[in-house]
Amino acid sequence: MDQKTKAFDLVREDVANVLSGRAEPLRDLAGGHLFLTGGTGFLGSWLLELLAHLNEHHSFQTRVTVLSRSPQDLATRAPHLAANVAFTFIEGDVCHFAEMPMDVTHVIHAAALTNRNQFASNPTHVGEVNANATLRVLRASQLLPDLRRFLLISSGLVYGEVPRQLERVDETYVGGLPSFNFNSIYAESKRYSETIAAAFLSETKLPIVVARPFAFVGPYQSLALPWAVTDFMRDALTGGPVKIMGDGSTVRSLMYASDFAYWTLAMAANGRARAAYNIGSPEPVDLLSLAHRITQFFSPIPEILTEIGGTGQTSNRLVPSTRKAERELGLQLTVGLSDALQRTISWHKYTAEFLQRP
Question: What is the tens place of the pLDDT at every residue in 84-94?
């Protein structure tokens, strides 16, 4: 079996596992037409994997229209998805499109500029795109006669600066962000997107649901992204050392990609209109421990270096409470952190030979 086959088999196994005994709660999507923005990136690829499985093995007959700036990327990353007859791909900019197919029943708006490098290099563009895209998609959704649910993918960063003593952030928490600071641009663009959605709720009857994702790991996630988990894996895969900004005491949590996609579809199918839900793992891990857990999957074990870039890094904590999603939608984690890390590392090892952009 070649490496490429192993990579896709791993993903197919994850998809089958997360949907085993859990397809029926997604039944509202069956026979419908889902419009997905940003559908060829990390989350989009996993949503399409689950939907393809639901169509093939559970007779969902769900059609999906995907709006993406670069749908051709999917043909390289996952050609089986690009060729799926139930999926239609439209190349375009979400900030400039005007209408959707009139028979669309569900909308997931996931398109956004999320690369932290862009936050620093072109922050005004990040703010403009993320806010205007949401406005465009909501206006187009107003015209749909049979829309059942509009899912806005926001971010856990909307909570702003969270006190370190707060173990888990729930959907009622209201934090603050330094407004005269360009580092706030992504979080503020997501907060503003939610405010735009709330404005639409005051004027229309759109069935809007908000999802607030935290941090994730899994196949299809690019190691070029400047997040701690991708940095650590990239360092380890290239022999190390694994470099940590600060002392490693910052606390996060990581949800595996298959759970991320399932929870997203569950919110699109069953989320309560006018409600916001966290998506993520409630299990905390500090960055130093995360680095150690990643390096254990390599031989020899790479060295870990802390305080890279000096000692001025601020330690913080951001871990979601998922009780609301668990209580209202019956959601739960199916993949623990160790398995999530091991499977992601295996996928990157498999794809290194044939995929330049994981």
Answer: 999 999 999 99
